[in-house]
Design brief:
Layout: E1 13-16, H1 20-31, E2 36-39, E3 57-58, H2 60-63, H3 69-85, E4 94-97, H4 103-112, E5 117-120, H5 121-127, E6 137-141, E7 145-146, H6 149-162, E8 166-168, E9 181-184, E10 198-208, E11 218-220, E12 227-233, E13 236-240, H7 253-266, E14 274-285, E15 292-296, E16 299-303, H8 309-326, E17 334-336
Parallel strand pairs: 1-2, 1-9, 2-8, 4-11, 9-16, 15-17
Antiparallel strand pairs: 3-7, 4-6, 5-6, 10-13, 10-14, 11-12, 12-13, 15-16
Helix pairs in contact: 1-6, 1-8, 3-8
């Protein structure tokens, strides 16, 4: 469906927020020939951004277990954009495993997701030799990938600059101070304009061990604390799982125990791993946990990416660009007010 845009396609574009959502917006607009300026309140290390604490999984098929179809549709399109613009992105797939006592939850996960193949114990160990003898079967989602947020964000920023865009760090600005097309990607900070946003805390732990080697994210199915273990290079692994309806920061003792206990359930060698870092981020979410592109004259707000920031950001940026360039509307995601 098409609707005439109220925006001038040749206007300068100002984007507020240089996290994963804003960075992809800036990159696609800059590559399309727009004069782009990206504003970020944090410094170049992005330690204040939710993206700093993200897992970076590109897993639309696995996410279908607990997400609406729109997440899968946009996520699959994003995989193509990651492959096209960042061809070195690891697309080694995702592996889902469970212990025998959690067989029912494993089968439920399999039924609710697609694009996987079943592996027997030999298949699991062939894929991940460190897991030999640990699990009797698994689900392999070959089309999925993952990125390391703290490495890919600087790369995105460099690509924006190379495409002619400008990035201003340590710059806390507002839409009212900017001319032309303004794209608001501030996450929870945008509650002054979108009060229905809420923060969902995601906690993570980074550990280091040379006794485990993994080539892809591994998800452990468990009824109480499902876990993902993501390889980060240099013998480091990110442990994550939690989605807590709370807006405090930090990692609770309970969450730390559950994450570390789940990691031990994946492989006992994690018991001897060195803890490198604890942390948490507040993911911006609307009540329906779906992303939203809100259009008001020459102001556009991109928000509510919830736990799918790195998965959805490329596709949402493509939709925003298509609206500005030719008035294209995605009825599942966009709202004109």
């Amino acid at each position: 469906m098409y609707q005439k845009s109220d925006l001038r396609g040749d206007s300068p574009v100002s984007i507020i927020g240089a996290g994963i959502a804003g960075a992809w917006q800036a990159l696609l607009f800059a590559q399309a020939g727009h004069a782009v300026t990206l504003y970020e309140r944090s410094d170049a290390y992005m330690t204040l951004a939710t993206s700093h604490w993200a897992g970076g999984m590109l897993a639309p098929y696995c996410e279908a277990e607990a997400s609406e179809p729109a997440i899968g549709r946009l996520g699959i399109r994003s995989l193509d954009l990651w492959r096209e613009l960042f061809p070195k992105t690891p697309f080694n797939g995702s592996l889902v495993v469970a212990h025998a006592r959690d067989r029912a939850d494993f089968e439920r996960f399999a039924k609710l997701t697609t694009s996987h193949v079943r592996l027997d114990a030999r298949g699991v160990s062939d894929l991940e030799p460190s897991l030999e003898g640990r699990f009797r079967d698994g689900l392999f989602y070959a089309g999925e990938g993952h990125v390391e947020p703290r490495r890919v964000l600087p790369e995105l920023h460099a690509r924006i600059t190379a495409a002619g865009g400008t990035i201003k760090f340590d710059c806390d600005t507002s839409a009212e101070d900017l001319d032309g097309i303004v794209i608001d990607c501030r996450g929870l900070s945008a509650r002054d304009e979108q009060p229905e946003l809420r923060g969902v805390k995601g906690e993570m732990i980074i550990v280091e061990t040379n006794e485990v080697e993994l080539s892809r994210p591994v998800r452990l199915i468990h009824p109480r604390w499902p876990l993902y273990v993501i390889p980060r290079g240099d013998n480091k692994f990110m442990l994550g799982a939690t989605s807590i309806e709370a807006e405090d920061t930090g990692v609770s003792v309970r969450s730390a125990l559950e994450l570390l206990g789940a990691a031990y359930a994946v492989h006992p060698a994690f018991a001897e791993a060195r803890i490198v870092e604890f942390g948490s981020g507040l993911r911006p979410a609307f009540p329906d946990n779906l992303p939203r592109i809100t259009i008001r004259n020459d102001k556009i707000a991109v928000n509510g990416l919830y736990r799918h920031g790195f998965l959805l950001a490329p596709a949402l940026a493509e939709l925003t660009l298509a609206y500005v360039q030719r008035g294209a509307i995605d009825n599942e995601v966009m709202r004109c007010v």
